[in-house]
Amino acid sequence: MENKRANCIIEVSVDGANGRHAVGIMNMRQALDLPEMPSLSYTHPDPVKAAAGIVISRKELAGFMVCR
Which residues are within 8 A (CB) of 62 and not within 5 positions of it... i.e. 6 or more apart? Predict the structure, then answer.
């Protein structure tokens, strides 16, 4: 069974000395397929929270992939 949450679109950013810089827009599955790097952050999958600038960790993002 395909997890529909995997198709939620998020923005992946890298946190650097000069602030956060966008890496790309992708679905959650693609974001979790990226190499594990502590400098990466992910916008919240909820569009309202993402628009408010809320970012989450890779571990939190993986939690959204779990079927409820």
Answer: 32
**CB-CB contact of 39 with 13 (8 Å):** no
Q: Are strands 9-16 and 55-56 parallel, antiparallel or unpaired?
A: unpaired
In terms of Cα–Cα distance, which of 65, 35, 67, 64 is closest to 12? 35
pLDDT, tens digit (0-9, with 9 covering 90-100), for 15-54: 888 888 999 999 999 999 999 998 999 999 998 999 998 9
The runs of H, that is alpha helices, within the chain are: 28-33, 47-51, 58-65
pTM over 0.90: no
